[in-house]
Amino acid sequence: MYVRRSAAVLAAAVVIGAAAPAIAADSSPSASPKPTYPAELYGTTDPTYDGVWRQSLAMLAQNTVGVKPASKAVDWLLTQQCANGAFAPYRADAAADCDAKTLVDTNNTAAAVQALVALGGHDAATSKAVTWLKSVQNKDGGWGYMPGGASDTNSTSVVIGALATAGERPADVRKDGKTAYHALNELALPCKGDDGGAFAFQPDKKGKLLANADATAAGVLGSLGKGLVVSPGKDAPATRCVSDGLPASQQAAVNGAAHLTAALAKDGHLTSTLPGAEDQPDYGNTADAVVALAALSGADAVEKPLRWLEQNSAKWAKQSGPAAYAQLILAAHATGTDPRDFGGADLVEQLNATGPAPQAAAKATNEEKTKKDDSPFGVWWYVGIFLVVGIGIGFLLSGRKKGPQA
To answer: Which is higher by pLDDT, 7 or 333?
Structure first.
């Protein structure tokens, strides 16, 4: 999803920077202890770059099906917010104040806003987060992953979703007269050419726009002013790129949708093309494309990719964890599909199993335990009853064997 691209780049930079000292380190075969992460967190993998993101997506997905996340899971999310309103992806020591070395970003912050608004009751936290997001808007109207970074389609779109979810009008949030929609329009490819209508993540070093499926799915949602959770749209399916006749943001959404529709037409899925690697189906971006197309045109526009996900995404979701389950649940929600029977799988149950038990499940377990503990008759009372009954039966049988006495 949106955070993956920028977070992956950031993670790679950190790993490369740390590689040299590791070579010169002591090579003795001492086993490193396996790191442990908070029990309140969804998933068991390193949360350094996506902790808040996957926590937020998990809660958003649960909320769409009426599942109330565990209170401690919500509390953990809130502890990741800094005093200035921004969210870090993961603060191992949440008791310590954020400082200049604390990595905060727009993607995790925007996702947290959407989750906390959906759950309700966290107005102070979301208000501070929205204020921070506004403060780091770029002069072109967009947002980059890190504050001050060049605007990109993914970050700009997820911030639009946060603003809209929080009750703001993204078109009214301006920097130097520019809005987020201005930034998105500048990142959309014109209709001419094979990739017409697609969105680029960012211009390359030469200023050229290169089509990107992840960015296009994000750009469609952003141009529609939608967040991560959408309901089926009612516009006609987008089948071709148009150069005029629509408001700029609507036109960008339609054109991006047309590009995704064409990309999905052959196999029903998008493809991951990485240099030096064999092309593979791109499950995550396919799920995001389903959400984007459904937001514009409803379930009929995504029947083929949705069925493909139902039939093929189980292994990917299991390997990828809570964010993947959440993406599939959000795709099901966008199309009116039952996520508890998604190709025969119960996505909700699988997502719930990656984190602390939801409040309803935890309450039911506690009530069952309390009922057992509060019973006026303990286990030994029943054992005693059975012993008495057994002794009585023994006497009765003994009497029958002896028969009547002379």
So the answer is: 333
